[in-house]
Design a protein that fits this description.
The chain is α/β, with parallel strands linked by helices. It is 54% helix and 16% strand. Helix 8 packs antiparallel against helix 9 and helix 11 runs antiparallel to helix 12.
């Protein structure tokens, strides 16, 4: 277990198996080996091991909770819910199981039950910082009134006071304050943070997002890496909870309208793959499916999810520049929102596609008929139609199609996004 906690998974797996050779069916060894197998992408084996352990120790709340976590991370929400409820039967004060139950209820759109579950969590564990953070996110994501946003502010303040390492709470505090039009307070949150940690990329970027500094042409690599490495363990959970998130499905549907029937004969790049949510949608088309992301933490989650032939940790533009005419399809779901100026990355995308290859990506919309890029208080960039069309043409793309869709929600409100499809000319330029 010491090796496991230190992320030395090779040693931990060897030692767990030695324990099981010395004492067959030792339940703790089976339980934690099951957790480890899931971490290494062998989730079915992990489920079998934990279920075997629970036959021996059926009232072990941690094992029920961890089994639920595997089901949750594999998208089996009903099975996960049953496991969490069983954990709470065995250990009514198991606040991690209560937390996880609230999450899967929310993911199943049972919002009243989820709200009650979060409330019970905070009653059980009033000093559990993550519980206050999740309640704040719930209140903001499903806000029905200004009061709900105001309540989220207090939740985020409490979460950060209880755990100053919870930088997601601090960032979310600023976003909620901005949503309440308390722009100066939001900027001050980030200034105070930057004063404590002068080299931290998140407050530096978010001060610009609040209008307190000039917006950079794109989000700094360290900002993106810091946000998503810290977000990796809860990313899918947050997306499941943010019920409006549907960019992978929308982009896949757009691709399906121009590609031939899936035949597993295309080289596909998932550009900004995150935890791999696009993989099952792209796999039927792919002879070779590559995922690339700047965040190593996200790539590890994608590796566990599976479906890719190759995964790379790299900055996107430089990766594309290093793979000329390597792909038939390039998809980028909610990644280019961290690029203000799109010219370099779109030119690199054009060069990485083979003649006749397709690029599909999403952006957030900026209103107006002018040629403009804005940095929003969320820390993401917004682009006007005229800007996007101009840079695509300059990059050499043809057959450009742009539509508007709702790809996710923020503060309980839909966020309009561009869904963009473009093609590299089928004639190779010499």
């Amino acid at each position: 277990m010491h090796s496991h906690q230190a992320d030395d998974l090779d040693t931990a797996e060897r030692l767990y198996r030695e324990v099981l050779e010395l004492r067959a069916a030792q339940p703790d060894a089976m339980h934690y080996l099951g957790v480890l197998c899931h971490q290494r992408g062998r989730s079915d084996e992990g489920v079998r091991l934990i279920e075997a352990a629970l036959k021996i120790t059926p009232k072990h709340p941690d094992a029920h909770n961890n089994l639920g976590n595997i089901h949750k991370e594999c998208g089996r929400l009903a099975e996960a819910e049953r496991c969490y409820r069983k954990a709470l039967e065995c250990g009514p004060e198991h606040y991690n199981a209560q937390n996880n139950l609230a999450v899967v209820l929310e993911a199943q759109e049972r919002l009243e039950e989820a709200f009650e579950a979060y409330g019970k969590l905070l009653q059980q564990a009033p000093k559990f910082a993550q519980g206050h953070y999740l309640m704040g996110m719930f209140l903001r994501n499903y806000a029905q009134s200004v009061e709900h946003i105001e309540q989220s502010v207090q939740c985020f303040r409490t979460a950060y006071q209880l755990d100053p390492r919870n930088l997601r709470a601090l960032e979310s505090l600023g976003v909620s304050l901005y949503a309440l039009h308390r722009r100066e307070e939001a900027a001050q949150v980030y200034r105070d943070w930057l004063a404590r940690e002068p080299d931290h990329p998140i407050p530096r970027h978010m001060i610009a997002a609040c209008g307190g500094a000039e917006a950079p042409p794109r989000a700094d690599d360290e900002y993106v890496r810091s946000v998503f490495d810290g977000f990796a363990d809860s990313f899918d959970e947050q997306l499941l909870k943010n019920l409006g998130y549907r960019a992978p499905q929308v982009l896949a549907e757009v691709l399906a309208g121009v590609l031939p029937a899936p035949a597993g004969d295309l080289d596909v790049l998932d550009a900004g793959c995150g935890t791999g949510l696009c993989a099952p949608l792209l796999r039927p088309y792919a002879r070779h499916l590559t995922g690339v992301d700047l965040s190593g933490g996200m790539v590890e989650k994608a590796r566990v999810r599976g479906g890719y032939d190759a995964l790379e940790v790299a900055e996107l533009t430089s990766f594309l520049q290093g793979h000329p005419q390597a792909y038939d399809v390039l998809i980028s779901a909610d990644t280019l929102v961290y690029f203000g100026e799109l010219q370099d990355v779109l030119s690199a995308s054009h060069a990485a596609l083979r003649p006749g290859g397709w690029l599909v990506f999403s952006l957030e919309t900026a209103e107006g008929d002018d040629d403009r890029v804005d940095l929003s208080p969320s820390g993401r960039y917004q682009h006007t139609r005229r800007y996007v069309e101009r840079v695509l043409a300059a990059a050499g793309f043809a057959d450009v199609r742009m539509g508007v869709d709702t790809l996710r929600k923020e503060g309980g409100q839909p966020v309009a996004g561009w869904v963009v499809l473009a093609r590299r000319s089928s004639r190779s330029v010499q």
